[in-house]
Design a protein that fits this description.
With 220 residues, the protein is of the alpha+beta class. The chain contains eight helices and eight strands. The protein has one domain.
């Protein structure tokens, strides 16, 4: 019998935005989903980082949508995409001590761990109202409710930035074909590649979002 979710992982709200985190033994604590525009906007307001012109350019990559209007055909619009890896750094520092973009190996270990589990996650207390609504929306999609890799959107989410090494990042994931047509296997393939501090046209990375990890070990 495969282990149940309840006995192997914990779900808890983050202290900054009250969105769900998932704690996986021997790997670390990750944001359950890619970071949402709601969370990034909280960071922008509190820190006065970036600005309207910058954000308008980002939103051209993947327009904003109200979490009340999310359906199984448009939920990718909840998540911030079109950001470069170095732009994630200031958000990760604000989000919490020790949080960062996961390495390729960490991301794949988390994916493999979640794909091996059976059961359902219990929504934690003290989520924000937007996070609770998004949880219920995603859980209500038949395609995502039966698989934790899909509920966490490691599968059928965005392409996500991961660290290959200290100087190079890559995209990983298996989005829906409606969001980005691809045939990649996240356990063997990398979707996009970018060197640190390199600025390519932002729309070339319009499918690239990110989740954060506070890892138990930082492997290369």
């Amino acid at each position: 019998m495969s282990p149940s979710y309840e006995t192997t992982i914990r779900v808890l709200p983050d202290k900054k935005t009250h969105f769900p985190l998932i704690d996986i033994p021997d790997i670390g604590t990750l944001t359950l989903w890619p970071v949402t525009k709601i969370q990034f906007e909280m960071f922008m307001i509190q820190t006065k980082a970036y600005g309207d012109t910058w954000y308008d350019e980002v939103l051209q990559c993947n327009p904003r949508i109200s979490y009340h209007r999310v359906t199984k055909m448009n939920y990718e619009r909840l998540f911030i995409t079109g950001v470069y890896p170095d732009e994630v750094l200031s958000f990760s520092k604000w989000f919490g001590d020790g949080y960062r973009i996961p390495t390729v190996n960490e991301w794949r270990k988390a994916y493999t761990s979640l794909s091996s589990l059976n059961g359902e996650l219990e929504m934690p207390e003290d989520l924000s109202e937007p996070a609770e609504t998004i949880w219920k929306k995603i859980h209500g999609f038949p395609e995502t409710s039966l698989s934790l890799t899909k509920f966490s959107l490691m599968q059928w989410g965005t392409v996500e930035w991961v660290m290959k090494n200290e100087e190079e990042f890559a995209g990983i994931g298996h989005p829906r074909h409606e969001f980005k047509c691809n045939c990649s296997n996240p356990l063997t393939d990398l979707v996009e590649k970018i060197k640190k501090n390199t600025t390519y046209p932002r729309k070339g990375y319009r499918h690239c979002g990110f989740r954060l990890i506070k890892g138990n070990c930082h492997d290369e």
